[in-house]
Amino acid sequence: MKAQADPHAALHRLFLTLFLRGRSARGRTKDGSPASLHRKLFMTLLLYAAMGCLALYFVRQPLFSYAAYLHAMTFASMGLFVAGSAGEVLFCREEADILDHRPIAPRALLWAKVRVMVEVSLWLAGAINLVGLLAGLFVLEHGLRFVFVHAASTTLLALFTAGSIVLVYQLCLRFFGRKRLESLLTLTQMLVAIAAVLAGQLPSMLSNAKFSLPVSLSFRTGWLAFFPPAWFAGLDDVLCGQSSMASWLLALLALAFTAMVAWLAFLRLTQDHGKGFQTMGETQGLTPASRAGVSLLNRMVNRPPLSWCLRDPVTRASFLLTAAYLLRDRDVKLRVYPGLAPYLILPLILIFKVSGGLRGRSFALALLVAFLGIIPIVAQSLLQHSQQWQASDIFRTAPIPGPAKLCDGGRQAVMVLLVLPVLVVISVVLFLFPGDPSRWMLLVAGFIAMPVAARLPLGTSWVPPLSLPAEEAKSTDRGFLLFFTTAASMLLAGLAFAAQSVGMLKGFLLVEAVLAAVAYVLLRRALSKQCWAAID
Amino acid sequence: MIQLHALTKRFGTQVAVDSLSFQIPAGQIVGLLGPNGAGKSTTLKMLTGMLTPSSGTATLCGHDLLTETVEVKRKVGFVPESGAVYESLTGLEYLEMVAALYGIPPDAARARICQFLAFFDLGFDTLSDKLLGAFSKGMRRKVVITAGLLHNPPLVFFDEPLDGLDANAAVGFKALIQSLAQDGHTIIYSSHILDVVERVCDRVIIIDKGHLLLDGSPEELVAIHGSGTLERLFTDVTGGQELERRAQDFAKTFSQ
Predict the structure, then answer these.
(1) Minimal Cα distance from B11: which residue of A?
(2) What is the per-residue pLDDT for A357?
């Protein structure tokens, strides 16, 4: 008798392949043959392993602090990674037509997806912790035991992180229903991204305080109980370190919360996942686009000052298209807002965290300058991609010589709908920290750089919004582009800060303004001359 | 084979399918017709277990749709209108994955896939080497049809199956579903190409705004209503009589 195929193994293999290859293959290779996964995976793991080298800075600290650092970095990275991919993995709209009529129980489907998410999370966790584990093996007192204990606690942390995100989605679905699920998915991913960034602050809080875990948690140290990475560090401390009452308490929290989250997410609420998956395939009964939002957009583009900037019909059409996707498209919202969340929250953390007097706050302001340059670049880079990228063929069939006006419209939508609100929030926060107004001059360096940064080509040439496959948004090339952008912005911030420190800020701003004006004119001219690139 | 009793689907306040009731015996090819938004796809999605009915009952192959959904899905093949596939899998990987979901052993799955390849005149190398994202629309449609029939289901639902198929493949496909029906398979065929439905189906069910309008053999319905063709009958009962005059008016005003 022939052995029956195992549907569970088939589902696992399917989702792992999809996770590694991406869901859309269109436009990836000319001959349509499967692209090599090894390079992509290797580069990603290498990037995470490089991030993990920071562990060397903490390895001489007490075991709890060291473990807390490793878990905080792992939690932040895994949280961002899982939050960024969970929406697509758990509730892919097209998937309903492929799988929903097959004989698979909702629980089997959910488990296969979660198993892949946990598995990939563990690979990333392994890469991030690699250097830390090796350093711990040679430096810590019970090095070998630490390696095994930390590997086990990291596995639990991966389960907790993936489970928490699945649980949040299922709770949203259960209590808010289908109609609000899509907007909630975006909000949830943003909040998870912000939580991951906040949790990533744990190491610096511990190192600032030269922290050693007390025997028992007091009012002063009780905040540790609110940081999940601290729970798992407690587990490491119990089995390899001082094993105090406090570490026992934190370890118990780690075990209890992981068990609770896993039970709720993977057992108790799996039926909700089935319902949610089913409703993704519904084409009727969807909430219509917000009339208020649409009419507000129309009023905005028809009135000054926006009507002055959008006199050209192509620019105006591109503005409205980009704005509509920013407000309505689930895929774009899930990519753009959670992708931007860390860049929005970090400047605020910097302002709140710095307590080192005038000089410290000035440095925070200088970093704000850097982020002002990064936000439009990141937003535009994320907005180049869409699941409906093939619809952008209409740009090429229209009588337009090149992408310049379309890029202009997309950029203006980013500036109006994303950057402007951020500037308002930052201004309000700065207003709450009154001080010498001359410090605010630092921000001018960011304002001057912003028009140039927003016009930079995000690759070898300018690309209109929503015209690249969604899968390419995750490429490691884009990661490197963002890395270099961040480095360049930080350099500008550093120069501005240094100029202010030596009393030459005004001169620096003047030079920057001249250089920015030249760059602006050159970029504008180059963009207007660019013709359509050949289609692969 | 299929029994529906007052099957209803509501989306909020909107009623997409309203108390639909009919029975279909084994071996029949039934055309499910209706204008856009009539509730055809919603009906098919309910009968394939993809949507839960708001009220009413249905029995397929002796299994209750609401309480034995997985068993129903095992007996049903569905070719959706969207033609959705996992584009980053090769055709072979996709079909083998589908076969595994029905518990078909790998060797048997490969043999069945090769049968379909031969029928559709597809090359094995193309299927095994190329990602589905690189397939033409017609080739992808052939893969989706294969994925719907691979487990040899007694009950098959087709939603616009000819979309993208070339003329030869379409002729072959029509012959295939007639052969399947002769072998005892029951087929529900939803399409807007009415002359094909008229030639292929033993019976047509016309619905509009979620309600059943007509049910009978094409010849019988055309004769009763004196319409001449199924297409004319369809436009008569779904309010499309004015379309030709409106098209002429539009052409005049548009070119002015």
Answers:
(1) A285
(2) 52
B168: buried, middle or exposed (CB in 10 Å: 19+, 13-18, 0-12)?
exposed
State the 10-residue block means of pLDDT for chain A, 536 residues long.
Answer: 76 86 57 56 81 81 84 84 75 80 86 87 90 87 87 92 83 70 70 73 60 54 79 89 83 94 83 67 51 71 85 89 85 80 72 56 69 82 84 82 90 90 79 67 83 80 83 64 76 85 89 93 88 68
Q: Which of A10, A32, A97 sits opposite B84 (nearest CB)?
A: A97
Contact B134 A32 (CB under 8 A): yes
- CB atoms A25 and B12 under 8 Å: no
Characterize A396-417 residue by residue with b for buried, 16 or more Cβ atoms within 10 angstroms of its Cβ, and e for exposed: eeeeeebbbbbbbbbbbbbbbb
Return the residue of A nearest to B44 by Cα: A101
ipTM value, please give it: 0.79
B85 chain-A contacts, CB cut-off 8 A:
98
Amino acid at A117: M
Beta strands in A204-349, from DSSP E residues, in sequence order: none
Strands annotated E in B61-190 = 63-64, 76-79, 155-159, 186-190
Q: B144 to chain A: nearest residue by CA? A: A98
Are residues A2 and B105, on separate chains, in Cβ contact within 8 Å?
yes
Could you give the angle at which helices A313-328 and A357-383 cross, rounded to 10 degrees? Answer: 100
Beta strands (DSSP E) in chain B are 2-11, 14-24, 29-33, 55-60, 63-64, 76-79, 155-159, 186-190, 203-208, 211-216
**What is the reported pTM?**
0.75
> Model confidence at B2, in pLDDT bands (50, 70, 90)?
very high
Contacts of A23 in chain B (CB under 8 A): 86-88
Of B70, B86, B100, the CB nearest to A98: B86
| A281 contacts on B by Cβ (under 8 Å) | 45, 50-51
